[in-house]
Amino acid sequence: MFLWRAKGKSDIGYLLQVDSNPAPDHEWGYSCDYKALFPFKNPVNIKDLRSDSFFDEWSPLKRNLQGKAFRIQENYWRRLNQIAIRKDPDYKEIVSKILAIPIGMIEDFKASEYVSAFQDLQMAPRYKQMLLANYHAPNRTLTASKMAKAMGYDGFGAANLHYGTLGGLVGEKLGWHPLPEFKVNVLVDFEKENNEWLWIMRPAVAGAIELLGWDEDPSTIPEEIDKPIYEGAVKRIPINAYERSTRAREECLFHYGCKCSVCDINLSDIYGEIAQGRIHVHHLKPLSEINSEYQIDPIADLRPICPNCHYMIHLNSPPYSIEELREMINSNRKRHE
């Protein structure tokens, strides 16, 4: 356990080993026998925690660590150990020998190092799409099942396989030795919720995506969305365009998957991995009809549409509905039977 020093210091002063069961205590509520395993020379302090976005939603920090004891979830425990090693390198030996945490689980690389690794890899399109799906997921957190849906895979096993492969490739470029048992841990931290593992993107990986400009994905097309979730404000580039939201796009794909809502085609079935996770996103209400800001609902307002069907939808003004275009396809098929 960590000992948080509140008065006058606001830092983690010691790593302690508990040697007895907790017993009632009139001052602290509970107390126990313990011994100090490691006194930190350069302790993790409250400024370190507040400056790390990873802890933005950590409830003890929201309460200014006011209280007698806090349970530290596994992902926060790993992050605290990462920061502690960075500030006090001698602590690394304690982590590996006494706590028996594999060093590969708590390696702490910078965003710039991930940038170099990503660039050296010249990664396949599907790998970049997986990173972006994780980046744009709520709280940069998703499950293997949601990743599979966003990428158009048949099941979570394929998502585990491909994301794990990417983690291994990135880890090798970083010089991460030994690699963690689950190679996807190079890219994410884990937390279990309702019997399903959450993939929580490492802050340095998210930082690398931003440094590379991938969060403003240049491969998006005019009818796709790629900016904040509030839409409708006109901005001037060579032509007037509406600000759009990549996060809304990803939430749409998490819900509906990558199969065309009109013709049921998955582009990766035709073009292979280069089309994995690629699909247009269609606004059921055209943005050109919206002159003031509104809050888009990715599930109610958006649908995945293949490029051909998307083109056909916009041959009419106002655009054809999905149902109208689907009826055209069915009628034409019957005519040629």
Overview in brief:
The protein is of the alpha+beta class. The chain is 40% helix and 17% strand.
Which secondary structure elements does this structure contain, and how are they paired or packed?
Layout: E1 2-5, E2 11-18, E3 23-25, E4 29-31, E5 34-39, H1 46-50, H2 59-62, H3 74-87, H4 91-97, H5 103-106, H6 111-121, H7 125-136, E6 141-142, H8 144-151, H9 156-174, E7 188-193, E8 196-201, H10 203-211, E9 230-231, E10 234-236, E11 240-242, H11 246-256, H12 267-271, E12 280-283, E13 294-295, H13 298-301, E14 302-305, H14 307-313, H15 322-335
Antiparallel strand pairs: 1-2, 2-5, 3-4, 6-8, 7-8, 9-13, 10-11, 12-14
Helix pairs in contact: 6-9, 6-10, 8-9, 8-11
Integer-rounded radius of gyration: 25 Å
Share of helical residues = 25-40%
Q: Classify the fold: give the CATH topology of the largest domain.
A: Arc Repressor Mutant, subunit A
Strand portion: 15-25%
Query: Order of SSEs, N→C?
Result: EEEEEHHHHHHHEHHEEHEEEHHEEHEHH
Major sheet? 3 strands, antiparallel
User: Any idea what the shape is?
Assistant: elongated
Name the CATH superfamily classification of the largest domain. Answer: Winged helix-like DNA-binding domain superfamily/Winged helix DNA-binding domain
> Do you know the CATH architecture of the largest domain?
Orthogonal Bundle
Kindly report the average pLDDT value.
79
What is the number of beta strands? 14
Instruction: Please tell me the total number of domains.
Output: 3
Poorly predicted regions are: 218-231, 233-243
Q: What structural category do the secondary elements indicate? A: alpha+beta
Beginning-to-end CA distance, first to last residue: 72 Å
The top-level CATH class of the largest domain is Mainly Alpha
Count of alpha/pi helices: 15
